[in-house]
Amino acid sequence: MKLKPLLVIVLSFLALATSAKETIIKGKINGKLPETLYYTAPVNGALGFHLYYTAKVDAMGKFEIKADLAEISFIDIYYNYQPAGALIALPGVSYGVTINESSGKVTHSITGSTIAEAQTWYSSVVNNHREAVFIDLAMMLAKLETAKAITEEAKVLENRDAAAIKKLYDNKAISNELYTLLLNERSYLYATSLGYAFLLKHIFAMRETTPPDLAEFAGAWSALYKRHNPANSAISKYPWGNYFLDMYKNYKLYESVGFDGKKFLSRIILKLEKEIWLSSLLKMPNTIMLQNFMKTHLVAKKKKRYWQKWLT
Question: For residue 6, what pLDDT is reported?
Fold first, then answer.
């Protein structure tokens, strides 16, 4: 007997809801209290789609965050606009987060993690805004001369991270589930950075006297989305999901004008961007994930001025 798609979605949601366990983060802020304490948390299992919440901070600087998790997830905390913790959150586990503010500088520490070694490593590789992490990486990659060099360097860096994750697994510091999750999380970080690096190469070429052969970069750009299918529902589990799809949007925009930079800019100026990327994304089969992306993309646009304030 075949189940109707809506029934499958409802049953999947109910299965997640019944298996979810409450994860609690108790925090303390030392120093000046923030205007706003933001945090991210999964919505129906979806992550990385600019879904931000605010936590109430009392006069003593104490706060509490609760999230019902059915599987291992990632929760980011922000003191105003500054990163204040990137947690690997396990269902049913309680954490402590101490945020120290001094002369505008924010540091933090995390306690209570049952995977302390993995948490320490993860905090070291996600030590900035996620957007800044993948953009800095992309800018570094875009300095390389060829698409092959860019792709190979990204793979070297990904393999370095994979080796660190394998060491955690071999030392029995993480489960098989977390091992696989972290490998995929890293994979989507580097895919997102590659997408942006290829976009940058096309943009830089427009102002170069002797631009490189962009056919090579266009081919590598296209191959990237064959290796990492944008319709893959697993994207919703990773904090880079929104950024990955945003880079895919840029790829589809460039593809729609034959990878012609001037035509690309004219499309943007004429505000046809929304029409093009929506038409391409709506052809994908994973409707739920795309709805998350489209809705939260609009939310992100509204909040962009806040992040710009932090970045300037």
Answer: 44
Which residue bears the tokens 């309680």?
A: 94
Which alpha helices (DSSP H) does 69-213 contain, by range? 116-125, 130-142, 147-170, 176-205
Q: What is the pLDDT of residues 67-119, one digit of tens each?
A: 999 999 999 999 998 999 999 999 999 999 999 999 999 999 999 989 999 99
Q: How many residues does the chain have?
A: 312
Ranges under pLDDT 70 in the chain: 1-18, 44-50, 265-312
d(CA 151, CA 195): 10
Domain topology for 21-114: Immunoglobulin-like (2.60.40)
* Spatial contact of 220 and 211, defined as CB atoms under 8 Å apart: no
Q: At what angle do helices 130-142 and 147-170 cross, to 10 degrees?
A: 130
pLDDT for 226-238, tens place per residue?
A: 999 988 888 888 9
Q: Give the model's pLDDT for residue 24.
A: 95
Domain with CATH 2.60.40.2890 in the chain: 21-114
- Which two tokens mark 289? 């994930």
What residues are paired with 30 via a beta bridge? 100
DSSP tag of 46? B
CA–CA separation, 90 vs 177, rounded Å? 11
**C-alpha distance from residue 58 to each of 27, 157, 300 (Å):** 11, 42, 27
Residue 35: strand, helix, or coil? coil
Q: Tokens in use for 303?
A: 């909040």
What local confidence, expressed as pLDDT, does residue 180 receive? 96
How far apart are the C-alpha atoms of 160 and 158, rounded to whole Å? 5
Strand partners, 29: 99
DSSP summary character for residue 3: P
CA distance 242 to 251: 14
Q: What pLDDT shows up at residue 198?
A: 94
Contacts of residue 65, defined as CB under 8 A and 6 or more positions apart, other chains included, come to: 24, 25, 27, 39, 41, 55, 75, 77
Q: Write out 220-285 in H/E/C secondary structure.
A: HHHHHHHHCCCCCHHHHHCCCHHHHHHHHHHHHHHHHCCCCHHHHHHHHHCCCHHHHHHHHHCCCC
